[in-house]
Amino acid sequence: MVKHLDIDQAAGVIMPFYDDDTNILFLAGKGDGNVRYYEFVNEDPWFFPLSEFRSTTSSKGIGMVPKRGLDVMSCETARFLKLTSNSVEPLSFKVPRKSDAFQDDIFPDCFSGEPSHTADEWWGGSDKPQETMSLNPMNRRDTSGSQGSFVPSKTPAQLTKELDEAQARIAVLEKRLQDAGLDSS
């Protein structure tokens, strides 16, 4: 079935971005500052408008950040980077929720960014489903298999000690260059 909807009277090119996990279509217009978004459903009326981001700053282009780059704990369901004539502006779309717990109803498993098969397998007719990942920080693992949450490998005291040692070494080497007459300063 084909559904028709008049969006506006602007002559700019529409850039569509579809979120397959949540069935939401984002429409941004080149030369327009607004982003409209619609949810698709499997029954009449087939889709309905959710909301609209309005801005007076026109866009020259826009790109969607992958789901694995979102702040899921603040219920950010989409983020775009909007190119203007003199900057790149992040646009964040969040679902208002009071709980600070992970919201699995708005964050189903999503594309992991990892290929599900090799190019040779694909050329050979492979039809594997895409590799998915959990967005829940407690279950999330990066491609190396470590826990997805950032865990610093060194303490601030260790980093400070390494920095002091490096600066002392730099001072020794600069002194050697100066004594050899090779100092460029």
Structural key phrases:
single chain, 185 residues, alpha+beta, 4-stranded antiparallel β-sheet, 9 strands, elongated
How would you explain this protein's 3D organization?
- By secondary structure, this protein is of the alpha+beta class.
- The chain has a domain at 14-102.
- It is built from two helices and nine strands, in the order E-E-E-E-E-E-E-E-H-E-H.
- It has helices spanning 119-123, 156-179, and strands at 14-19, 24-29, 35-40, 47-53, 61-64, 76-83, 88-94, 110-111, 132-133.
- The strands form three sheets. The protein has a four-stranded antiparallel sheet, with no helix packed on it. A three-stranded antiparallel sheet has the order 5-6-7, with no helix packed on it. Strands 8-9 form a two-stranded antiparallel ribbon.
- A hairpin with a 6-residue loop joins strand 3 and strand 4 (47-53).
- The longest helix is centred in the C-terminal third of the chain and has 24 residues, at 156-179.
